[in-house]
């Protein structure tokens, strides 16, 4: 097999979302394959690997080729409550006994925040670089994941707006994103764990040099700005960045693995039948440093 990456939409989005063929992620990758995937991520930001029947250990081994893996400290379930190991984010609607969560279960309600536009781990001091999501069991319909190209969104801003926001610093917290949905059922320990962290609003990709917006539903404040004015601007920017021209929707097939660059994308899950099983396992590669320590 020869690894190849082709644009999924070569006409409308030739540099956003690619399909990867000719590689088996269940076995150790050759250095050339790792380099080709990294180059593909630098160009496309979203890569789809069809029919990759990974175990958790194989998924962890694949993701670890691209950097240090995060621990799943942003999940609500911790310790003995967890269904999966700490290197796997449990993006499912199942409890530790593999039963579908009740519609009013606080773990499910917390997970509904994934339907808001967000960037993985922007609520951590060092946010995520890559995420890799494996579809183990999917519902018969619904449950797509949409991705927004934050490079294209930056490019489409007028020069005046680019200048106004270029040096702004936002504060991100899961407390804020969940409050948007009316979820405030947090313990004192969880409130401490999800305390706001600063992130640049505009970032520069270390390889391509392209600038991009770094937005998420977790962003609830801009340092030095009145809160209402900050939230109005952030809302406008998210609306701008999620125009259909900037968005790719992935319709899942079982055993798809989708990998994306959180530094230059936002994403969100779409609704599905809450009684159907949706079992998705995510590994997450941490970025190199907090955004304030990276070159703007």
Plain-language structure description:
The chain is α+β, with helices and mostly antiparallel strands and 296 residues long. The protein has one domain: 4-Layer Sandwich (Double-stranded beta-helix). Helices cover 23% and strands 26% of the residues. It is built from 8 helices and 15 strands. The chain has a 7-stranded mixed beta sheet with strand order 1-2-3-13-5-15-4, with helices on one face. Strands 12-6-14 form a 3-stranded antiparallel beta sheet. The longest helix is centred in the last third of the chain and has 15 residues. It is globular.
Q: What key attributes describe this structure?
A:
single chain, 296 residues, alpha+beta, Double-stranded beta-helix, 8 helices, 15 strands, 23% helix, globular
Number of distinct helices: 8
- The stretches of 5 or more residues where confidence is low (pLDDT under 50) are none
- Helical amount among residues, as a percent range? 10-25%
Assembly of the depicted chains: single chain
Order of helices and strands: EEHEHEHEEHHEHHEEEEHEEEE
**CATH architecture identity:** 4-Layer Sandwich
Which percent band covers the strand fraction? Answer: 25-35%
Shape: globular
- What characterizes the major β-sheet? 7 strands, mixed
The N- to C-terminal Cα distance equals 40 Å
Please count the beta strands (DSSP E, at least 2 residues each). Answer: 15
- Please state the structural category: alpha+beta
Tell me the name of the CATH class.
Alpha Beta
User: The CATH topology, please?
Assistant: Double-stranded beta-helix
């Amino acid at each position: 097999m020869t690894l190849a990456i082709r644009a999924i939409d070569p006409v409308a989005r030739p540099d956003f979302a690619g399909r990867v063929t000719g590689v088996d992620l269940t076995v150790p990758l050759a250095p050339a394959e790792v380099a080709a995937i990294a180059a593909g991520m630098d160009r496309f930001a979203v890569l789809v690997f069809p029919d990759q029947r990974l175990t958790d250990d194989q998924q962890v081994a694949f993701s670890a080729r691209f950097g240090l893996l995060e621990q799943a400290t942003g999940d609500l379930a911790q310790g003995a409550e967890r269904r999966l190991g700490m290197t796997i984010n449990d993006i499912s609607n199942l409890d530790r006994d593999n039963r579908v969560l009740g519609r009013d279960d606080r773990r499910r309600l917390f997970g509904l925040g994934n339907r808001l536009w967000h960037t993985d781990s922007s609520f951590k001091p060092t946010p995520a670089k890559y995420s890799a999501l494996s579809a183990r069991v999917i519902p018969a319909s619904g449950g797509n994941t949409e991705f927004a190209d934050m490079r294209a969104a930056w490019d489409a801003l007028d020069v005046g707006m680019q200048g106004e926001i270029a040096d702004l610093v936002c504060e991100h917290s899961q407390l804020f994103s969940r409050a948007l949905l009316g979820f405030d059922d947090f313990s004192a320990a969880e409130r401490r764990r999800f305390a706001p962290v600063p992130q640049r609003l505009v970032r520069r990709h270390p390889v391509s040099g392209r600038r991009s917006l770094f937005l998420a539903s977790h962003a609830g404040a801009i340092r030095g700005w009145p809160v209402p004015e900050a939230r109005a601007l952030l809302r406008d920017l998210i609306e701008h960045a999620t125009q259909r021209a900037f968005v790719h929707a992935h319709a899942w097939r079982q055993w798809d693995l989708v990998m994306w660059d959180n530094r230059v994308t936002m994403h969100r899950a779409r609704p599905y039948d809450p009684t159907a099983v949706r079992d998705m396992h995510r590994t997450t590669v941490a970025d190199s440093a907090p955004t304030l320590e990276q070159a703007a």
